[in-house]
Amino acid sequence: MSGCRLMRAISVSEFGGPSVLRLCSNVTVPQLGRRQVLIRVHACGVNPVEAYIRAGTYARKPTLPYTPGTDVAGVVETVGEEVVAVKAGDRVFTTATESGGYAEFTVAAEDCVHKLPEALDFTQGAAIGIPYFTAYRALVHKAQSKAGETVLIHGASGGVGVAACQLSRALGLRVFGTAGTPEGMNLVLNNGAHMAFNHREEGYTNKIMEATDGKGIGVILEMLSNINLSKDLQMLAYGGRVTIVGSRGPIEINPRDIMAKESSIMGVALFFATPEEKKECAALLYAGMETGWLRPVVGSQYPLDKAAQAHHDIIESPGAAGKIVLTM
């Protein structure tokens, strides 16, 4: 039935700069399979990885043409015959889509669709998926953070950073965060960080070390490894861990910094999360929504036809302040 309906969607037919994100108004509404859900999209989060994929610089490249977007929030339109978790009319958010989220409708697999509590609006729902699931994977599944440890979130005012601040505080960690603007530092402090530091300030790493009484940091979540990784290794405590969430290029490091502390560097890629890991994460995050500590911070909002501007800003803006979201 949905096959003959048309919708607006962003289509990418070549890899390149933000201008390759083109709005099409005659795209067929996608068909859904037995275990899939058709969602009327109200908002879709924009993630840095989507800009890397669009540019053609990411390890995995989708088949052209494609529609970007994984983190939508909206209302279930219809469900496949074997779907039991949600029904038509439910408010939901997703952690992945089959057909792309920069569109008025999207299809997602049932296990990637989660109910959105009434306390959160659709723009907040669109800020949950990749940011919070990535933060959980980095802190829990990779770094195996323990209550009482000190965590440094290097780039804490963006989507993943804010999620990591809230989650770290809920897990009982001592939370340090960095940002590049006074606004960003206030945002970090208002979302769970005990202390905030300006990573554009000369000597800021010395201040971080002073705040640990010289003992160093147990866990670092790193959003911009190509700039910060060498400094991170020098700030770690004995047995400390750096989790690589983001990088925009190569960097030179001294392996002796790792040897001296018996520290670890580990990559974080949500793509490799098992179904069991996703369920565990979803359960904890839903508890956070119910109890109130999970409260996504939405930054700049753009209409669908300004997706190219959103992609430009997520990479080029001088300081992040919450999650960038497209609205339909």
UniProtKB/TrEMBL annotation:
It is found in: Cytoplasm. One of its GO terms (molecular function) is mRNA 3'-UTR binding. InterPro entries: ADH-like_C (IPR013149), ADH-like_N (IPR013154), ER (IPR020843), GroES-like_sf (IPR011032), NAD(P)-bd_dom_sf (IPR036291), Quin_OxRdtase/zeta-crystal_CS (IPR002364), Zinc-ADH_QOR/CCCR (IPR051603). Its main location: cytoplasm. GO terms for cellular component: cytosol. Residues 16-326 form the Enoyl reductase (ER) domain. Keywords: Acetylation, Cytoplasm, NADP, RNA-binding. Homotetramer. Belongs to the zinc-containing alcohol dehydrogenase family. Quinone oxidoreductase subfamily. This is Crystallin, zeta (quinone reductase).
